[in-house]
Backbone:
């Protein structure tokens, strides 16, 4: 357990940051899941629209440090490739 005032404050700050990061990660997952559902439905227009909504959210999470830049690029690339694969 934290013994000093500084350590107690760091525990409080870390918990706030953890909660905030969980919220942001959940938001990204939701947008990706919505895009994947649209791809599964086979509707290319709907999938493209969902992808266009997901990209700025993914990019903003990179800027916040929630996602690594390479992981974000990989996710966007894979989603886009699956959308292009729809006919």
Residues:
């Amino acid at each position: 357990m934290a013994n000093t005032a500084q350590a107690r404050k760091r525990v409080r700050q870390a918990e706030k940051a953890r909660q905030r990061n969980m919220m942001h990660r959940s938001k990204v997952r939701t947008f990706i899941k919505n895009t994947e559902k649209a791809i599964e439905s086979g509707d290319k227009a709907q999938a493209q629209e969902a992808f266009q909504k997901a990209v700025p959210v993914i990019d903003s999470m990179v800027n916040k440090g929630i996602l690594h830049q390479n992981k974000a690029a990989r996710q966007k690339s894979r989603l886009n490739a699956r959308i292009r694969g729809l006919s």
Summary: The two ends are 58 Å apart (CA to CA). Residues 28 and 58 are 6 Å apart (CA to CA). The helical segments are 5-41, 44-64, 69-85.
